C-alpha cells in the first residue's frame, strides 16, 4: 500500500510526497481521451507535446532568470525546502524529472557534498524531454565543475515512458514540470515503477489558491504581469501566457493527491 501526505505548503506552492511501499496499491489508470489541453486551448496529445516542447525550447536560455523575476527569487527558497524534505542519505540515487537546467540537481549535489565530504557516494540523473533545456543544464554543470565527475548524468527522456529499469532510484523529484506532461497519471505511474521499494517521490508544483483575497491578487499578477515580464525579459509573451494558463488547468490539491494514490 502507499502512504500519501502533504509535506509542505508555502504561499501558492504545494509540495507533497508519497513513500512507496513493498506492494502496489490500486491499478494504474490510463487516460484514453483523444483530447487534452495546452493552457486554455484544446488540442490532441501529440499537439500538446509538440507545443510544450517548443515553449521550453524558446525559453531555455532565459528560464532561470525568468524564474527569479516571476517569483521575486522565492522559487529558490521553495527548492531549498524540497531538498530539506528529501534529506538525502549517503548513496542516494536521485532521478530529477523535467530537471533540464539543473536547479534541483545542483542543490542536491551541494547537500551531498556537505553530508558526504570530498568523495560522495550519492548521484543524480537529470531527465528531460527537451534537449535545449538539458544543454543549458550541462553548461551550468560544466561551469560548476560537475561534468568532470560521475555525480551527475543528463538523459533525454519522456516522463511518461522513462528509459530506466524498475526499482532503479531511491528518490524522484520533479519541480514545476508535471503540469506540462501530456498525461500526468502516466508520469506518476512511471515514477512509481522506477522507484525502489521505500523510495520517495517529491513534487513541487503550483496549485489552487483557496484564499479568495490572495486568489484575486494572484490571478491579476499571473495573467496581467507574468506574460509582460516574459515579453520584456525573454522576448516571449505567448510562452509565459501558456505557463500561467497551465497552472490554472492543473488539478487542485485534493485531485492531485488522489492521482498520486492511484499510481
Automatic annotation (TrEMBL):
Component of a multi-subunit COQ enzyme complex, composed of at least COQ3, COQ4, COQ5, COQ6, COQ7 and COQ9. Interacts with PYURF; the interaction is direct, stabilizes COQ5 protein and associates PYURF with COQ enzyme complex. InterPro entries: SAM-dependent_MTases_sf, UbiE/COQ5_MeTrFase, UbiE/COQ5_MeTrFase_CS. GO terms for biological process: methylation. It comes from the Eukaryota. The keyword Methyltransferase applies. One of its GO terms (molecular function) is 2-methoxy-6-polyprenyl-1,4-benzoquinol methyltransferase activity. This is Uncharacterized protein. Pfam families: Ubie_methyltran (PF01209). PROSITE patterns: SAM_MT_UBIE (PS51608), UBIE_1 (PS01183), UBIE_2 (PS01184). The keyword Transferase applies. Keywords: Methyltransferase, S-adenosyl-L-methionine, Transferase, Ubiquinone biosynthesis.
Amino acid at each position: 500500500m502507499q502512504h500519501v501526505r502533504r509535506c509542505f505548503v508555502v504561499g501558492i506552492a504545494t509540495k507533497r510526497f508519497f513513500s512507496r511501499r513493498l506492494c502496489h496499491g490500486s491499478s494504474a489508470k490510463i487516460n484514453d481521451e483523444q483530447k487534452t489541453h495546452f493552457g486554455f486551448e484544446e488540442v490532441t496529445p501529440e499537439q500538446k507535446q509538440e507545443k510544450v516542447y517548443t515553449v521550453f525550447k524558446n525559453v531555455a536560455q532565459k528560464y532561470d532568470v525568468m524564474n527569479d523575476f516571476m517569483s521575486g527569487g522565492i522559487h529558490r527558497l521553495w527548492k531549498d525546502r524540497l531538498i530539506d524534505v528529501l534529506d538525502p542519505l549517503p548513496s542516494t540515487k536521485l532521478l530529477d524529472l523535467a530537471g533540464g537546467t539543473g536547479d534541483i540537481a545542483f542543490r542536491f549535489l551541494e547537500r551531498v557534498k556537505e553530508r558526504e565530504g570530498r568523495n560522495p557516494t550519492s548521484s543524480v540523473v537529470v531527465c528531460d524531454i527537451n534537449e535545449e533545456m538539458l544543454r543549458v543544464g550541462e553548461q551550468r554543470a560544466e561551469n560548476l565543475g560537475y561534468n568532470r565527475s560521475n555525480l551527475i548524468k543528463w538523459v533525454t527522456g519522456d516522463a511518461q515512458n522513462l528509459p530506466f529499469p524498475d526499482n532503479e532510484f531511491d528518490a524522484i523529484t520533479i519541480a514545476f514540470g508535471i503540469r506540462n506532461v501530456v498525461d500526468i497519471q502516466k508520469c506518476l505511474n512511471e515514477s512509481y515503477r522506477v522507484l525502489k521499494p521505500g523510495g520517495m517521490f517529491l513534487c513541487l508544483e503550483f496549485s489552487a489558491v483557496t484564499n479568495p483575497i490572495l486568489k484575486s491578487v494572484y490571478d491579476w499578477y499571473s495573467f496581467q504581469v507574468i506574460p509582460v515580464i516574459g515579453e520584456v525579459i525573454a522576448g516571449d509573451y505567448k510562452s509565459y501566457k501558456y505557463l500561467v494558463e497551465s497552472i490554472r488547468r492543473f488539478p487542485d490539491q485534493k485531485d492531485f493527491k488522489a492521482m498520486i494514490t492511484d499510481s
